[in-house]
């Protein structure tokens, strides 16, 4: 359970530079889950099925296309 802001600041922080600088060739989402405290629901969603993180953050925000 985390806020989106804390998740980005703490958990995503080491990955963004590595992806942007092409220091990694692939990404493997985990089977662990994340739930946002911002929405008050607290219902964790498995990372491998998390559209907001995979499509929104990884592909759109960071620009990872999976073909490096």
- The residue fraction in helices comes out at 25-40%
Q: From the alpha-carbon coordinates, what is the Rg to the nearest angstrom?
A: 12 Å
Structural class: mainly alpha
Q: What is the spatial order of strands in the main beta sheet?
A: 1-2
- Mean pLDDT figure: 84
How far from one another are the termini?
Answer: 31 Å
> How would a textbook summarize the main sheet?
2 strands, antiparallel
Summarize the helix and strand pattern as letters. HHEEH
Helix tally? 3
Which tags fit this structure?
about 70 residues, 2 strands, mainly alpha, 3 helices, two-stranded antiparallel ribbon
What does this structure look like?
The chain has three helices and two strands; from the N terminus they run H-H-E-E-H. The protein is mainly alpha-helical. A two-stranded antiparallel ribbon has the order 1-2. The model has no long low-confidence stretch (mean pLDDT 84).
